[in-house]
Amino acid sequence: MTVTINGSPAALPDDPRVSLLDLLREHLHLFGAKKGCNQGACGACTVLVDGERVLSCLALAVQYEGRSITTVEGLAPQGDMHPLQKAFISHDGFQCGYCTPGQICSAVGMARELRQGVPSHVTADLRAQTIPPSHDELRERMSGNVCRCGAYNGIVAAIAETFEGAPT
């Protein structure tokens, strides 16, 4: 049984109880996704599975057989930074940096949701084909990612700058 992680195949562990987060960190030595609360409450472990946000601490690795997983390390595989990573630096979207990989993966997945017209609690038009990345939309959609340092203004500014010109 295999899974694709950041474009490369990886064997799934024999033990079906291994979480996706532990597979990434302990077996594959990909340390971007962080073990924060280990209960799905902080978002530090967020990765993308087939482009959708997943809390890897709550997911069993074997659930993702044959699927494609992207961690923060795989967002810009050519060695350059993803535009959102650059925006986090320019807007001081992090302080200690612990939550940053999860914030970035979550924001990339969130942008996909906006493009697909997936509504949130604050979406005004539930029938909209696409949803503009307004300040309220960004804050609501990123509310599952906790930053204990309080860098939220920089995080929202970085996300807005990165995705404002992108087709929504």
**Could you estimate the helical fraction of the residues in percent?**
25-40%
Q: β content, as a range? A: 5-15%
Please tell me how large the radius of gyration is: 16 Å
Please summarize the sheet with the most strands.
5 strands, mixed
Q: Assign the CATH topology of the largest domain.
A: DNA polymerase, domain 1
| CATH homolog superfamily of the largest domain | [2Fe-2S]-binding domain
CATH class of the largest domain: Mainly Alpha
CATH architecture of the largest domain: Orthogonal Bundle
**Strand adjacency order, main sheet:** 2-1-5-3-4
Domain 2Fe-2S ferredoxin-type: 1-75
Pfam families: Fer2, Fer2_2
Organism: Variovorax paradoxus
GO molecular function, one term: metal ion binding
Key features?
single chain; 168 residues; alpha+beta; Ubiquitin-like (UB roll); DNA polymerase, domain 1; 2 domains; five-stranded mixed sheet; 5 strands; iron; metal ion binding
Q: What report would you give on this structure?
A:
GO terms for molecular function: 2 iron, 2 sulfur cluster binding; metal ion binding; oxidoreductase activity, acting on the aldehyde or oxo group of donors. This is Xanthine dehydrogenase YagT iron-sulfur-binding subunit. Keywords: 2Fe-2S, Iron, Iron-sulfur, Metal-binding, Oxidoreductase. This protein is of the alpha+beta class. The chain has two domains: 73 residues, Ubiquitin-like (UB roll); 82 residues, DNA polymerase, domain 1, CATH 1.10.150. The chain contains five helices and five strands, in the order E-E-H-E-E-E-H-H-H-H. It has a five-stranded mixed beta sheet with strand order 2-1-5-3-4, with helices on one face. It is globular, with a radius of gyration of 16 Å. 38% of the residues are buried.
